[in-house]
Design brief:
By secondary structure, the chain is an alpha+beta fold. The chain contains ten helices and eight strands. It comes from Mammaliicoccus lentus.
Length: about 250
């Protein structure tokens, strides 16, 4: 977008909302002013307006958290995806069979954005939720999304971008990432083993539309200790459910 039409105040609102989203109940007025390198009076006016509109809430200790309006907008955003309804109809198959957490995501540049989640009944819960993000290169669903690109396109996507290691097991080069992506074309799914969270493994497969485009990715996450005994069942289920959702969207196998 041309800077000719850029509105600085809206950019500041965007930065403030993102700060509060990433760390609710952390930032006070002075903290936000320092983070954005903007004088306190300007930040104060924005915060007062956002608070009046119920976009943010000022806590008793002076920190800020997200307000109800942003929660409502977030719910409306995700409700527009018919794919989420189909996901929720299909996922019980997986939960009933192997009792593991199932999630779905879209891609935003180099990050995946979670848009749906159904948890198992284990006391160990994943921290992810609809709206949260993770680097694509370190997640099974991210690798699925990246499989729509050629090797050269992935090189361009990550040009001058470091593949940050989330754990000691995270892939850290384009060449290694491409090797993983190639397995998706062969098997229809990909495993990610402790690259995103130590102690957990994840399998993911693509969800496609009638144009053979990847609209989303679906995953099953489990403890590494469960991998051997649930591996084959998870592979069968992820293919079955991803294909069912894809067919509902017009994809022909």
């Amino acid at each position: 977008m041309s800077k000719q039409y850029w509105i600085t105040s809206i950019e500041r609102v965007d930065k403030i909302i993102k700060l509060i989203t990433n760390d609710p109940k952390k930032y006070r007025l002075i903290d936000i002013s320092n983070e954005l390198n903007v004088n306190k009076s300007s930040i104060y006016s924005i915060l007062m307006t956002l608070e009046s509109l119920n976009w943010i809430v000022k806590e008793k200790d002076g920190t800020y958290s997200l307000g109800i309006i942003l929660g409502m907008l977030g719910s409306q955003y995700f409700s527009q995806f018919n794919i989420v309804d189909i996901f929720n109809e299909e996922v019980p198959i997986i939960i009933d069979e192997i009792n593991e957490t199932v999630q779905m995501s879209t891609l935003n540049l180099r990050d995946i954005v979670y848009i749906a989640k159904v948890e198992n009944n284990s006391p160990i819960k994943l921290a992810t939720s609809p709206g949260s993000t993770l680097p694509a290169h370190s997640t099974a669903m991210g690798k699925v999304h990246l499989s729509q690109y050629s090797f050269n396109e992935i090189e361009d996507l990550y040009k001058n971008i470091e593949l940050i290691k989330q754990t000691p097991f995270t892939v850290d080069s384009i060449e290694k990432l491409w090797e993983q992506i190639e397995t998706i074309k062969e098997n229809g799914f990909v495993w990610e083993k402790q690259e995103s969270i130590e102690g957990f493994v994840c399998i993911a497969a693509p969800i496609k539309n009638d144009k053979n485009e990847i609209l989303a990715a679906i995953s099953i996450t489990m403890l590494n200790d469960n991998f051997k005994k649930k591996k084959e069942k998870a592979e069968d289920l992820i293919l079955k459910v991803s294909n069912n959702i894809s067919k509902s969207l017009g994809y022909n196998l």
